[in-house]
């Protein structure tokens, strides 16, 4: 894997473990020489991750729609910034550049990006590995909901294999490499 797209919150959450574990992922990406592709902001876990990848000697590409340049705090130090017109173009460009996807804790925007990527995998638009970085069991309720959807017949059982669920960045990255 040469590039991984990470979906992450524009906030850092209220537990310092979110920052600590996000930094560990940044170190892991840089150590494996995997470029980070993300939304391009300096704020929240997005900024923490980008800073750590850069501080660890890695490369970072941000992708941001023009209208968010004023609302979001654009990261001034990343390796490359790609400006697009719309959120749809942002997601399409991130998907085009990425060899895999990781979802860190985040809010509605992160959820939307995650579910669109899972949906695309479900209908065969991509076969790239997708991982939930389950820091402090953040995604455990979501995993339980997905398992409930499988039990009740709304999600095919084999779709549980569309994503990796891990709380350690190095095992997460290793599992993703096995799926490439």
Describe what is shown at a glance.
With 180 residues, this protein is α/β, with parallel strands linked by helices. Helices cover 44% and strands 17% of the residues. A 7-stranded parallel β-sheet has the order 4-3-2-1-5-6-7, with helices on both faces.
Write the layout of secondary structure elements.
Layout: E1 3-7, H1 16-31, E2 35-38, H2 44-55, E3 60-65, H3 68-71, E4 80-84, H4 87-97, E5 101-103, H5 108-122, E6 130-133, H6 140-151, E7 164-166, H7 169-178
Parallel strand pairs: 1-2, 1-5, 2-3, 3-4, 5-6, 6-7
Helix pairs in contact: 1-2
Describe the structure.
The protein has helices at about 15-30, 45-55, 70, 85-95, 110-120, 140-150, 170-180, and strands at about 5, 35-40, 60-65, 80-85, 100-105, 130-135, 165. It contains seven helices and seven strands, in the order βαβαβαβαβαβαβα. The protein is globular. The protein is about 45% helix and about 15% strand. The chain has a seven-stranded parallel beta sheet with strand order 4-3-2-1-5-6-7, with helices on both faces. The protein has one domain: Rossmann fold (3-Layer(aba) Sandwich). The longest helix is centred in the first third of the chain and has 16 residues, at about 15-30. It is of the alpha/beta class and about 180 residues long. Helix 1 links the parallel strand 1 and strand 2.
Question: Any idea how many domains?
Answer: 1
Q: Please, how many helices? A: 7
Helical content (DSSP H or I, runs of 4+) = 40-55%
Total beta strand runs: 7
Strand content bin: 15-25%
Report the order of strands and helices.
Answer: EHEHEHEHEHEHEH
Class by SSE composition: alpha/beta
Radius of gyration: 15 Å
Please write the CATH class name: Alpha Beta
CATH topology term: Rossmann fold
Report how far the terminal alpha carbons are from each other.
Answer: 7 Å
How are the strands ordered across the major sheet?
A: 4-3-2-1-5-6-7
Catalogue the unreliable spans.
none
């Amino acid at each position: 894997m040469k590039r991984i797209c990470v979906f992450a919150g524009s906030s850092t959450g209220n537990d310092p473990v979110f920052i600590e574990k996000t930094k560990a992922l940044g170190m892991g990406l840089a150590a494996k020489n995997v470029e980070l592709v993300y939304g391009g902001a300096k704020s929240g876990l997005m900024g923490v991750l980008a800073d750590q990848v850069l501080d660890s000697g890695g490369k970072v590409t941000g992708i941001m729609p023009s209208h968010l340049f004023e609302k979001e705090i654009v990261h001034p130090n990343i390796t490359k910034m790609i400006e697009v017109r719309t959120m749809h173009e942002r997601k399409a460009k991130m998907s085009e550049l990425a060899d895999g996807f990781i979802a860190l804790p985040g809010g509605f925007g992160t959820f939307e990006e995650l579910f669109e990527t899972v949906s695309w995998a479900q209908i065969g638009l991509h076969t790239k590995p997708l991982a939930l970085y389950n820091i402090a069991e953040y995604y455990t309720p979501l995993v339980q909901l997905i398992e409930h959807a499988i039990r009740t017949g709304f999600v095919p059982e084999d779709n549980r294999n569309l994503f990796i669920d891990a709380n350690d960045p190095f095992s997460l990255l290793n599992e993703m490499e096995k799926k490439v």
